Amino acid sequence: MSKERINKFQAFVAKENLDGFIVSRLVSIRYLCGFTGSAGLMVIKPNQAWFLTDFRYQEQAKKQIKGARTIITKGETIAALKELTQFHGKNLRYGFEADYLLANDLTRLQENLPGAILVPTVDAIEDFSVIKDQDEISDTQRAVDISDLAFERVLNILRPGVRESEVAAELEYQMKMLGSERVPFETIVASGYRSALPHGVASNKKITKGDFVTFDFGATYNGYVSDMTRTIVIGKATPRQKKIYGIVLRAQKAGIRKVGPRVVTSAVDLAARNIIDRTGYKKYFGHGTGHGIGLFVHSKPRLGPKSTDVLKKGMIVTVEPGIYIPKWGGVRIEDDVLVTATGRRILNQAPKNLLEV
After folding, report:
1. pTM flag (> 0.85)
2. Cα atoms in the Cβ-side hemisphere of radius 13 Å centred on 63
3. What is d(CA 152, CA 305) in angstroms, rounded to the nearest whole number?
């Protein structure tokens, strides 16, 4: 599969009238050639591809690299480019990932490719990764399954007096024990008034009876991530909590029902947002309805009010509307959803009814 991805990207390089492309972002390198180490660089020309790394990874590279020739450098990879004359030439046009290359590395890249013209690109590799093949879908589903089961297990430790940070640690431990490689983003466990914080990462606050508790977390399997959110109540829910939760759940289901091939993503956002707006909580929903996932945690397509992205078969997106009322609390519900040929498939199986723990 790596060979196919490199071939497709080589076609892009040729189409953009580039002589080559420098890939420096590790997650992009993993997508293209399979390397999972922490030091490497790719140079991709229309008809050739090279992977550069140092001696620490020479055995790993032999096992993992597909579709590219491996070069073991004597030192740091960018500096090694200066000695590799096959990459030199007057006015050669090299594309690079402008969103991710540090300014200092860009300067060093120019110094070590004398005479080259460096051409900034945005989302060049990400645009290729939005459509998932079957292996990618299977890996994402495995990550989703891990997060679903970890959530079920962590419910057993929820009680008044336990700290958010303790719950987050247990959740991450369970995901690790179930086969997750790492957490793809900082785990959110936000209780009580803190559940009104859309990105309320776990604090030392103690959970108390009557709190909403919002969990937003993910697992990683073979590089592919999950991203799910559930909100529960400690003890019995109040009528107001039930009302807010019910609105968000209806909004989330409406958004999911809109997911399908050839749908403009702003329509998914609108389907969810309309439910919240009509019930009088418009000002309490201030973010987009979702985003794409894969090797990249927050990627295309974007599901927002002004998004013009179009859903296609093989994309995996989140659908995650919420209501956040300052000093009171909030609710968000999020699933990972695969776009199929005829509609959609929800990857998560964790319950979405209001849990009173």
Report:
1. yes
2. 5
3. 33
Tokens 């660089």 — which residue? 41
Tokens of 169: 């640690």
Local structure of residue 227 (DSSP, 8 states): -
Q: What's the CA gap between 290 and 195, in Å, rounded?
A: 18
SS3 content of the chain, % helix, strand, coil (to 5): 40, 25, 40
> Which superfamily does CATH assign the domain made up of 134-346 to?
Creatinase/methionine aminopeptidase superfamily (3.90.230.10)
The pLDDT tens digits for 245-273 are 999 999 999 999 999 999 999 999 999 99
Q: What is the CATH number of domain 2-129?
A: 3.40.350.10
DSSP string, 245-288: HHHHHHHHHHHHHH--TT-BHHHHHHHHHHHHHHTT-GGG--S-
Strand pairing report for 322-325 and 329-332: antiparallel
> In 3D, which of 213, 156, 221 has the Cα closest to residue 188?
213
Q: 185-227 pLDDT, tens per residue?
A: 999 999 999 999 999 999 999 999 999 999 999 999 999 999 9
Consecutive H or E run containing 27: helix 26-33
